[in-house]
Specification:
The chain is α+β, with helices and mostly antiparallel strands and 108 residues long. It is 19% helix and 22% strand. The chain has helices at residues 16-27, 97-105, and strands spanning 6-7, 12-13, 31-32, 48-49, 55-63, 70-76. A two-stranded antiparallel sheet has the order 1-2. It has a two-stranded antiparallel ribbon with strand order 3-4. The protein is elongated, with a radius of gyration of 27 Å. 5% of the residues are buried.
């Protein structure tokens, strides 16, 4: 709940605290993604991330319970880097232990 007077469409803060907050976001390359009001006509609840593409399907929904703020529902979309490994992983559950025991029993 950011009780700040910010014009998020134009990314402009009205007071010194709001301007400092906006500069801070810009300095570290963060974006605010909520574009619909979350309380009355103001955007007070934010989703802030490094890339707008990380958040998908962002929706402002009805308040939960007796809250006076609307909920924000969104999905994060990100990719993991697959690491190459030189480690061999044995699938011991796939071994034919019955035949192995029989073969070892024949060894003198």
């Amino acid at each position: 709940d950011f009780n700040m007077q910010v014009d998020w469409e134009n990314q402009v803060g009205s007071g010194s605290l709001e301007k400092e907050f906006m500069e801070c976001l810009q300095d570290v390359f963060l974006e605010q993604l909520v574009v619909e009001p979350t309380k009355e006509q103001a955007i007070l609840d934010l989703v802030i991330c490094t890339e707008a593409d990380l958040s998908r399907e962002l929706k402002v929904k009805e308040p939960l319970g007796s809250s006076d703020h609307n909920m924000i529902e969104f999905t994060l979309q990100f990719e993991r880097e697959k690491l190459q490994s030189d480690v061999t992983v044995l699938q011991l559950n796939k071994g034919n232990y019955k035949d192995m025991r029989e073969e070892l029993a024949r060894v003198d």
